[in-house]
Amino acid sequence: MQEPDVRVEPDALTGYAGLIGQEHQMLAQVRTALAAVQVPAGAFGHLPDSDQLHTAYNEHATAEQQNLTDLMDLLSYAATGLHSTAGNYRTNESDLQASLGGGR
């Protein structure tokens, strides 16, 4: 069984890394907006266990901030990896061309 030929387009990798960067920026704005939302202690009114509801809300809000930070870190790692991979492919192609006397 013969393996199919694989062609990698470094520009496609860097283009996708750019899109990931845009998503990272958008999530940073969302994280900032959510961090600005403060729910006062009396917001849950006279509901039974309103203090516990407020505490639970704050715990969830804190966890969501951490989730967004973790997601942003993952996107950053992915973009960095894509840029690095594209660079490696470009270097390899250049080295291969040079070893063949500039031909393709």
Radius of gyration over all CA atoms, rounded: 24 Å
Q: Report how far the terminal alpha carbons are from each other.
A: 27 Å
**Contiguous runs where pLDDT drops below 50 for at least 5 residues:** none
Average pLDDT taken over every residue: 91
Strand content: under 5%
Instruction: Please outline the major beta sheet.
Output: none
Describe the model.
The protein is mainly α and 104 residues long. The chain contains two helices and no strands. Helix 1 runs antiparallel to helix 2. The chain is rod-shaped, with a radius of gyration of 24 Å.
Summarize it.
This protein is an all-alpha fold.
Core attributes:
104 residues; mainly alpha; 0% strand
